[in-house]
Amino acid sequence: HFGDLLIDIPRHLVCVAGQRVDLTATEFKLLIVLAQRRGRVQSREALLRDVWEYDNLIDTRTVDTHMRRLREKLGEGAQYLDTVRGVGYRFMEA
């Protein structure tokens, strides 16, 4: 639970300000990986490996596209998702 953002892993549920947010399985996994490693920058390559399970790094833009969609869906809950230019993404510590 991060302020207005609730992530319930066992129930595969995300809520922002009490409103349920419908995420795809990939968006949910991306959010979980970032939240579990909060405060630490995750490179696009690491996210491709850990979320998409890609061994060969085909297209890091995939990560950017999913992050954009995730931010749109989370609305104000997206405040926890930080872009580190030229490196990757980080879930901000509350």
Please provide a written account of the structure.
Strands 1-2-3 form a three-stranded antiparallel beta sheet, with no helix packed on it. It has three helices and six strands, in the order E-E-E-H-E-H-H-E-E. The mean pLDDT is 92. Helices cover 37% and strands 21% of the residues. It starts with a strand and ends with a strand. The protein is an alpha+beta fold.
Quick one: how many beta strands?
Answer: 6
**Number of H/I helices:** 3
The neighbouring-strand order within the major sheet is 1-2-3
Overall structural class, as computed from helix and strand content, comes to alpha+beta
What portion of residues is helical?
25-40%
Topology as a string of helices (H) and strands (E): EEEHEHHEE
TL;DR of this structure?
The chain is of the alpha+beta class and 94 residues long. The protein contains three helices and six strands.
Main attributes?
3-stranded antiparallel β-sheet; 94 residues; 3 helices
Give the topology, please.
Blueprint: E1 5-8, E2 13-16, E3 19-20, H1 25-36, E4 42-43, H2 44-52, H3 61-74, E5 81-84, E6 88-91
Antiparallel strand pairs: 1-2, 2-3, 4-6, 5-6
Helix pairs in contact: 1-2, 1-3
